[in-house]
Amino acid sequence: MGVKTFKGGVHPYDGKDLSKSKPVRELKPKGELVFPLSQHIGAPATPVVNVGDTVLRGQKIAEAGGFVSSPIYSSVSGTVRAIEPRRVAVGDMVNSIVIESDGNFIETGFTEHEDIEALSNEEIINLIKEAGVVGMGGAGFPTHVKLSPKNPDGIEYIIANCAECEPYLTSDYRRMIEEPEKLVEGMRIVLKLFPKAQGVFGIEDNKPDCIAKLSELVKNERRMSVQPLMTKYPQGGERQLIHAVTGRDINSKMLPADAGCIVDNVETLVAIYNGVRFGRPLMNRTFTVTGDAVADPRNFSICIGTNFAELLEAADGLHTEAKKLIAGGPMMGFALFDLNIPTTKTTSALLCLSEDEASKYETTACINCGRCVEACPEQLVPSKLADFAEHKQFDMFEKWYGLECVECGSCSFGCPARRHLAQSIKSAKKLVLASKRKK
To answer: What is the pLDDT of residue 319?
Structure first.
């Protein structure tokens, strides 16, 4: 297959060399862990433990609060110290279960399933649901819901999002290099649910070793293939990935299933495999601590709920002052003012930069150069949308398709006037959608 891509996009410095050669190291947390009850799209989970309870690693501590929700499991053994609001990466205070680890990591029992072929589709979906699997690329959509489309026979592609286009992040890369078999087995489980579908691993061509390794693993698989993708941000965006792999397009009013596709992240597929094959709920994930201010950038296998500050300490802390702290990558991550926040199912990285490049530049007037239009993967006109947002002209914002913005930040990156285009558009989207919900 030739290299495929989408129209638009940008080429930021990727920063992956800082951590890509560092194997994943298991990190066992100390002290207390915090488990926010909203780690997914949909209804918050509901606690099933009380303050003072003793829990085991792998024990359910909160059950799904509805169909579009997901249960949460303790990643350590210890004692429930509190159920109270705690701050998360986006700045919100979220009701959370606080567990003090006893340091022993005593596990509850898990039920393995050696013969996955003997399981019915309903049993597989239920195992994925009970394992608490969600979209671990950042979206957090409950995976059992995604794998239950209205028309299962209409699904033609299961796409593994192996692009990892966000700069600096290398956790998916290390997972593909170190445990590609688990990724393939996760794909095999999903393909069992959709017998008419083909499984495609979409990988950017700046990862030739991953392409080679997965191509070798699936060379005799009739229903699996590897698709090299052009290295370009946001190649890993769901809409951009679907277009690159299939040539099909979706918009904000459609689901990938409407185009015959289901897209799952690398970590999500591995979690599916662990949940179905071994009955192990989602308790761990790979996580990158990186940036030019970090003493020893690394990749870790972390217990979900571990404190960000503890992860930075495990990477030998900072060797110089960090002027910018980000949960995630520089394009779509969230700036942090405090590291006393917990990791969740959807947090994949801590980025510490010695310079805050964005704050150095003074915003100037738009010169109508069109670079934001060239960069936009949705072929929008970000400069106009930002104008409408700033003047609260929300009717015009909608008329110019502002709700189609995927919030990738490519427009802000490419703007020579250094306008905060993506931020303005994102804020307007929230206000428009909130207004629609009220109506």
So the answer is: 97
The least confident of 24-28, 155-159, 359-363, 380-384 is 359-363
Name the residue type at position 90: V
Q: What does the alpha-carbon distance between residue 315 and residue 409 come to, in Å, rounded to a whole number?
A: 28
* Domains of the chain (ranges, CATH numbers): 1-24+111-356 (3.40.50.11540), 371-438 (no CATH)
**How far, in Å, CA of 297 to CA of 308, rounded?**
14
Helix axes 171-178, 180-193, angle to 10 degrees: 90
Q: Name which of 342, 196, 210 is nearest 266 in CA terms.
A: 210
Note the pLDDT of residue 98.
98
Chain centroid, CA 428 distance in Å: 23
How far is Cα 265 from Cα 180, in angstroms, rounded to an integer? 13
Q: Which of 29, 26, 65, 22 is nearest to 47 (CA)?
A: 65
pTM for this prediction: 0.96
Are the beta carbons of 62 and 50 closer than 8 angstroms?
no
